[in-house]
Amino acid sequence: MAGAFKLDAAGFELKFSEVSLDRPPHPGGMISSTGVRVRAPPSASSETAMHTSQAAAHAASTQDRARSAGWELRFAAITDIGMRRTVNQDVYLLHPSRRLYAVADGMGGHEGGELAATLAIETLAAYFDEVGDMIESTPQDRRSLQHNLVAGIKLANAAVYQEAAERGTHRGMGTTLVALTFDETRAYWAHVGDSRLYRLRNGQLERLTRDHSLLEETLERHNITSSDASEFIANFPYKHVLTRAVGSQYCVDVSVAFSQLVPGDIFLATTDGVHNALSDEELASVLRDHADDLSAACQAIAQLTLSRGAPDNLTALLVETHTPGR
Questions:
Q1: What percent of the chain clears pLDDT 70, i.e. is strictly above it?
Q2: Number of domains, the chain
Q3: Number of Cβ within a 10 Å radius of residue 97
Q4: DSSP state at residue 237
Q5: Is 17 helix (H, G, I), strand (E, B) or coil?
Q6: Which residue range forms the structural domain that includes residue 59?
Q7: Whole-prediction pTM
Q8: pLDDT band at 148 (very low <50, low <70, confident <90, very high)
Q9: Distance, CA of 237 to CA of 218 (rounded, Å)
Q10: In sequence order, which residues have a C-beta less than 8 Å from that of residue 165 and are 6 or more positions away?
């Protein structure tokens, strides 16, 4: 997927509100049988690891490391079809040469969800490859990196929306998408839908994204506190209704934020098959127990999720930042 991207087309408004989460606004190299390596477009300088569901009956796990301007990034990912689904509509991206990591959870019928998630991830990766040389050779500020995340996701939205319109049979297909990138001092992330990003810092897990779902927006609108939330959530009839998705509408609003990096930060991206099954404390416990082995942490998250019945596809992606040699 190569070629020049035009960002002045209708639907690609790139306005966004930046948010720093340094002061949070709220409390609190191995590939298994289904990990497939896809060659990035010709402009890319290295291989990209992207999971698709070609052999979705098994889990895929990947672990590797990359240098990023003084930081070493360690990363791992795993996905599994779960216990009840017949196809895996989750897709993850590990693109170390562009310091880009992403997770998508497709929706829209047997084939539509898989197509939407794969197309969104491919479009995002291709955009970062297209602008990658410019990113590497030009001094960057935080707004330009945030701009690239938002632009890439908006292009993914347009690609999925157009594909659905052309096919006709897949109207309404879409996908969640959460993407993470880095510069020398900060992490940047953007998301649409209810796939999440967490950060483990000094042993404490913090959720960095807010779900674009009817449930989450209802909780926020009515200021329902954590002490009251459990009962409300249990009785809420529209738990899984999304208010935003990539590709379901002509335009999409993208949430974007950034924070300063601290050595030892571990970022965790999950699809709802994971975080609907496991509590934040359970995720934190797994990460603390396996902080020295991200692949083992991914395996532990998958096994614990499967032990709960795993009615949905499940995906977890981890990126750790630390100073080389430590």
A1: 71
A2: 1
A3: 16
A4: T
A5: coil
A6: 35-322
A7: 0.80
A8: very high
A9: 12
A10: 171
Q: According to DSSP H, which parts of the chain are helical? A: 109-137, 142-167, 214-221, 226-235, 272-275, 280-289, 294-307
- Other Cβ atoms less than 10 A from the Cβ of 70: the count is 10
For residue 1, is it within any domain? no
Task: Residue count of the chain, please give it.
Answer: 326
Assigned domain for 4 exists: no
Distance of alpha carbon 189 from alpha carbon 265, whole angstroms: 14
Q: Is residue 322 scored above 70 in pLDDT?
A: yes
At how many degrees (to 10) do helices 280-289 and 294-307 cross? 140
pLDDT, one tens digit per residue, over 212-222 is 988 877 777 77
Residue type, 140: Q
Cα–Cα distance, 304 to 290 (Å, whole number): 14
The answer to the question of residue 163 being in a domain is yes
Instruction: Please give the Cα distance from 152 to 100 (Å, whole number).
Output: 11
| Pair of tokens at residue 38 | 């896809």
User: Among the listed ranges 225-234, 275-284, 286-295, which one has the minimum average pLDDT value?
Assistant: 225-234
* Span 17-67, pLDDT tens digits: 333 344 332 222 222 222 323 323 333 333 456 665 433 333 444 456 656
Confirm if 54 and 95 have CB atoms less than 8 A apart.
no
pLDDT of residue 205: 98
pLDDT value at position 184? 87
Query: 59 CB contacts (<8 Å, ≥6 apart)?
Result: 32, 34, 78, 79, 80, 299, 302
Residues in contact with 281: Cβ distance below 8 Å, sequence separation at least 6, in sequence order: 205
Instruction: Output the domain CATH number for residue 147.
Output: 3.60.40.10
Q: What would the two tokens of residue 234 be?
A: 């249990």
